[in-house]
Design a protein that fits this description.
globular; three-stranded antiparallel β-sheet; 6 helices; homodimer; mainly alpha; DNA-binding; about 60% helix
Amino acid sequence: MVTAPENSGDPGRELAEQLNRRLRNVVLLLRQVAADEPVTSQQASVLGSLEGGPLRMTALAAEHGVRLPTMTAQVNRLERDGLVTRGRDGQDARVVTVEITPRGRTLLLATRERRIAFLTGRLAELGEERRAAIAAALPALDMLFEPPGRT
Amino acid sequence: MVTAPENSGDPGRELAEQLNRRLRNVVLLLRQVAADEPVTSQQASVLGSLEGGPLRMTALAAEHGVRLPTMTAQVNRLERDGLVTRGRDGQDARVVTVEITPRGRTLLLATRERRIAFLTGRLAELGEERRAAIAAALPALDMLFEPPGRT
DNA sequence: CCAGCTAACTTAGACTGGCTAAGTAACCGA
DNA sequence: TCGGTTACTTAGCCAGTCTAAGTTAGCTGG
């Protein structure tokens, strides 16, 4: 097909184009799946960060790649909906900690379960060989989508 | 490690969990990369749809999985920025067609080029073996992220 | 032939989620 | 104790999504 011979100077340029075209479908599908959830994907993502224990605002913002004011607004909404609570740090009175509530935890688990069930269903349709291909590519995909590495 | 023996009833459940965890990084990285572009990823996506010729509003909305009013707003912004023009269909006076302008086309190509360059760079760091693994998984990934198929 | 339904858009209004700039309160160092 | 820095919030802007309601054009059945 399009596997032209002049790939020489750019190993993976062709592959990059292929991936780029596919990424649109990924985004579309993610939106579709997230559509009828009780929490948005951002909210679920933040709740996921809090699963292991409370975090401060700065840590949350950094982990999600957003500015502090964005996280303030996000936590406001989560708090309003009873999914997290704000707390204070003993050491430093400036610090605000955010903790997931039991309700938040329940919602998070249910949401994750639905997402995984969806993916599992899709994977089941693929057949063993294709699943193996994806599994084999996981380490590579990990590196490919690794958070923007510093140097 | 976690590859427990009771995978039997659910081929791919484990893989689904792996993928689910990775998807967050994909989203994060996409946001990061899109951050300093002159057009948003949605705008670029719509422009991409128009590359092959004018489309009507309904077709655009369907293709991007959004409601008509959303597409109206999107096209308003694109038109305001001189990237598309609205037209009328000869047959049916209710129909609005949207066409990409030369400026829109230029911007689209430049944006796509930067995205592909970014991916190419990432892929170059991976090494031949990992690139091959990703290439081998492409057909499977295609099926996995295929738009929600109706039966 | 026209009355009323349907289809294609747009408008209005609300919400999430992102940003910058500016405000406030607490910490820390000289 | 004063001045700078840090941690967060507030205010205000914009993109992008939705639903509900409006407008205009096509279509159909008496």
